[in-house]
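Weekly puzzle thread! Below is a chain. First person to post its structure in token form gets bragging rights.
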Amino acid sequence: MKFTTLLSSALLAVPILANSPFPWERLNKNDSLLIIVDLQEGLYTLARDYDPTLYKQNMLAHSALGLAFPSLPVILTTSASTGPNGPLPQEILDMYPTAPLISRQGEVNAWDSPEFRAAVKATGKKQIILAGIVTDVCTAFLARSLRAEGYSVWANQEASGTVTKEIRDLANDQMMRAGVNVVSLFSIVCDLMRDWRSSPGAKEILPWLDRYMPAYGLLARGHRAAVENGTVIPGEADLPL
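Winning reply:
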């Protein structure tokens, strides 16, 4: 019964996807802006929909996208950083010592800050990559505000955190209905890169992935080890290619 219900739901979704009012758009590294939204040390404690160790890695990986793709301008913003929300982690601040850091003292939605709006508009970029804590407020409010202003938005789901998985799912659904691309870190990296032969390409991105997405980094290490030191063991030679 459960399988039938899921199958019916999937079939019903097909015409909705086929007739989406938001056509697929690819990220362009030369027209994209990276925004780090309220990934603050105090707010980190509210990100309970992910394992805390994994989530810290996700925060740092999102923030480091600008290191992998130097053409991306970066804007950092915080909310009431002198209060319980706390500052941005020093690891993130050290990545971009000269990037604009907009310290909001009251605006919940970053787009309500004139200084933040001016910083975004000054970049001239139309594609926005963002993540924040909490997903349903800091990420979703800004993402939908940017959509209303005509920007294309990619929300990094893995680097946005909130108090429960149910709230995360609701926030992601609201963003998608507004035309926000709710995506993974790896999809952002691959869309910005497009081709392993590009620049940045395999030479630059594989070391970055090894540090910030170790699952793929170890895949590459394993391939290197197999090529350099690998020996086919009994049984492997009989496996299909």
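Puzzle host: Confirmed. Bonus trivia for everyone else. The beta strands are 32-37, 74-79, 101-104, 127-132, 152-156, 181-183.
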